[in-house]
């Protein structure tokens, strides 16, 4: 018995000493004495092999670092992910490949375990939630016969932890997996898929707002200091915001294609319950948010919920709903008052831009093209990457091309419209197909070169479109 106790105490002491030497329980993250020298040698060997993409050689030194010095460097984890992904890609033996995949999952698990200590040694923001989300993405990508339930559980937990700080590709994956679960079990996952859509839609807007702020910050600083690094940073965030906008579009698409709820479905679900919940602001806001995101703004449930909600608590979404209510009644001036109130109440730059665009679309439907452009321009001031706002302006120009008595010159309005469409697809890849379709359509109505030549306009010459448009374009 004494021997067993002695052995246990020796083992416990050895583990404690190991933890202290390898920096888990103290600040000696590289170890002490000869141990620290060995750790630094391993780091050098591993980094060199990773840089050269010699993943088999890198694996040996990395594995020892991973096991013996778990908090020495953050790149123990980033390198480990690169190494294991490289080995997975190269491996032909299915069992060995599976072993590497399981090892990859263990890298994420250990990173989460020591996340606080790792965060303390780097300026880069690393969190348990986003690390778990990345694990889920690689689980889905690499694991043979990946479990839908397991993948969804990881992604759902990740997004729940990070909320608006969740990376856009992880938030997008939440909606994709939730839609798949709904198709397999509509009765059991019905409420969850709706809640996931509400959450994902809100969180992706937070990401877009963050990117817009960064773009504005670096653009302004570049204008003031002319440091090329600021220009590069702004461009990187523009690329990121384009990717996030695609993710936002995909989130909507996954939910709509799941068949979880059409506008008629939502009307049937919520309309009978609005009256009994007319004092329940949380319930009313849920109805408003869901139906507005799905563009169900003509449904009675949405309109009634908006009126009740605005009476309790003035919010942008409720005011927007009331605007649609009065627009449906034909009380246009009253509707516009509520639309302007909604824009004023909204705090999110992304949502405010969306609202300006929607009001512009309302004015376009009323054939008030100058006002429609005014609101589209407001949307672009808030979000310069808003391709749909440029398309709205182009559609306004094409809807009212005549500004003079010469029909040939009036046709030059379509050049101005095409300018906006070219700009739309340049700043926002999500509208590329729609923009190209309209460019092909509007190009049919541009004047012939010989007719323009007879009026003194050669290819490449500028012409100012008159009337309310008052914009210069180029003959081509």
Helix fraction by DSSP (H/I, runs of at least 4): over 70%
**Which shape, going by the Cα principal axes?**
globular
Please report the distance between the alpha carbons of the first and last residues: 96 Å
The total beta strand count reads: 2
The ordered string of helix (H) and strand (E) elements is HHHHHHHHHHHHHHHHHHHHHHHEE
- Flag low-confidence runs: 1-17
Quote the average pLDDT.
92
Radius of gyration: 29 Å
Largest sheet: 2 strands, antiparallel
Q: What portion of the residues fall into strands of 2 or more residues?
A: under 5%
- So how many helices? 23
Q: Can you list the strand order of the major beta sheet?
A: 1-2
SSE class = mainly alpha
Question: Would you give an account of this structure?
Answer:
By secondary structure, this protein is an all-alpha fold. It is built from 23 helices and 2 strands. Strand 1 and strand 2 form a beta hairpin. Helix 18 runs antiparallel to helix 19. The N terminus is likely disordered.
Key features of this structure:
476 residues; mainly alpha; two-stranded antiparallel sheet; disordered N terminus
Brief summary:
The protein has 476 residues and is mostly helical.
Summarize the SSE layout with pairings.
Blueprint: H1 2-21, H2 34-51, H3 55-68, H4 75-90, H5 94-113, H6 115-119, H7 128-142, H8 148-162, H9 168-184, H10 186-225, H11 228-258, H12 263-274, H13 281-293, H14 300-312, H15 316-329, H16 332-345, H17 349-365, H18 369-382, H19 387-399, H20 407-410, H21 413-427, H22 432-443, H23 449-453, E1 462-465, E2 471-474
Antiparallel strand pairs: 1-2
Helix pairs in contact: 2-3, 2-4, 3-4, 4-5, 5-7, 7-8, 8-9, 9-10, 9-11, 10-11, 10-13, 12-14, 13-14, 14-15, 15-16, 16-17, 17-18, 17-19, 18-19, 19-21, 21-22
């Amino acid at each position: 018995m004494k021997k067993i106790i002695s052995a246990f105490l020796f083992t416990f002491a050895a583990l404690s000493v190991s933890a202290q030497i390898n920096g888990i329980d103290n600040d000696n993250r590289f170890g002490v004495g000869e141990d620290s020298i060995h750790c630094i040698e391993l780091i050098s060997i591993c980094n060199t092999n990773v840089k050269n993409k010699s993943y088999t050689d890198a694996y040996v030194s990395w594995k020892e670092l991973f096991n013996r010095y778990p908090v020495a460097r953050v790149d123990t984890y980033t390198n480990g992910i690169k190494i294991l992904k490289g080995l997975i890609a190269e491996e032909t033996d299915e069992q060995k490949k599976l072993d590497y995949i399981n090892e990859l999952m263990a890298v994420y698990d250990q990173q989460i375990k020591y996340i606080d200590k790792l965060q303390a040694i780097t300026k880069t923001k690393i969190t348990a939630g986003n690390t778990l989300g990345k694990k889920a993405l690689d689980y889905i990508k690499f694991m043979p016969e990946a479990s839908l339930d397991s993948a969804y559980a990881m992604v759902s937990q990740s997004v729940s932890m990070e909320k608006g700080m969740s990376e856009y590709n992880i938030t997008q994956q939440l909606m994709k997996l939730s839609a798949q679960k709904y198709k397999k079990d509509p009765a059991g996952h019905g409420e969850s898929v709706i809640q996931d859509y509400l959450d994902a839609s809100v969180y992706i807007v937070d990401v877009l707002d963050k990117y817009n702020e960064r773009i504005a910050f670096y653009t302004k600083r570049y204008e003031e200091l002319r440091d090329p690094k600021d220009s590069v940073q702004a461009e990187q965030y523009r690329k990121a915001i384009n990717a996030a906008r695609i993710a936002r579009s995909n989130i909507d698409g996954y939910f709509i294609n799941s068949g979880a709820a059409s506008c008629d479905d939502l009307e049937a679900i919520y309309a009978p319950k609005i009256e009994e919940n007319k004092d329940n602001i949380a319930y009313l806001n849920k109805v408003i948010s869901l139906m507005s995101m799905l563009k169900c703004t003509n449904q009675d449930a949405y309109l009634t919920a908006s009126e009740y909600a605005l009476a309790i608590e003035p919010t942008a979404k409720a005011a927007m709903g009331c605007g649609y209510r009065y627009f449906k009644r034909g009380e246009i001036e009253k509707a516009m008052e509520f639309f302007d109130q909604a824009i004023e109440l909204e705090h999110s730059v992304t949502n405010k831009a969306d609202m300006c665009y929607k009001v512009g679309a309302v004015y376009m439907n009323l054939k008030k093209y100058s006002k429609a452009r005014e609101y589209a321009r407001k949307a672009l001031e808030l979000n310069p990457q808003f391709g749909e706002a440029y398309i709205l302006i182009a559609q306004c120009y094409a809807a009212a091309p005549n500004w003079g008595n010469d029909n040939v010159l009036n046709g030059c309005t379509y050049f101005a419209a095409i300018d906006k469409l070219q700009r739309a697809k340049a700043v926002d890849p999500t509208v590329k197909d729609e923009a190209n379709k309209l460019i092909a359509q509007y190009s049919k109505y541009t004047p012939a070169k010989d007719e323009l030549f007879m009026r003194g306009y050669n290819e490449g010459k500028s012409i100012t479109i008159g009337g309310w448009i008052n914009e210069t374009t180029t003959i081509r």
